[in-house]
Amino acid sequence: MRTAELDYDFDPTLVATAPAEPRDAARLLVVDRARGSIEHRTVRDLTEILRANDQLFVNETSVLRARLALFDTARDRSTEGLLLEPGVEAHTWRVLVRHAKKFHDGDLLSLRDAHGHDHGDQLQLIRRDAEAWIARFSTGPSGGGIATLLERSGHTPLPPYILKARKDRQQSFDDDLDRAEYQTVYAQESARASVAAPTAGLHFTDELLQKLADRAIGATAITLHVGAGTFKPVDVDDLADHAMHRESYTVSTDALASLRRLAPLRAAASARIVAVGTTTVRALESLPADALTRTDAVNASTDILIAPGFSFRFTDALLTNFHLPRSTLLALVGAFMGMELMRETYATAVRERYRFYSYGDAMLVL
Question: How far apart are CA 182 and CA 199, in angstroms?
Answer without folding.
Answer: 8
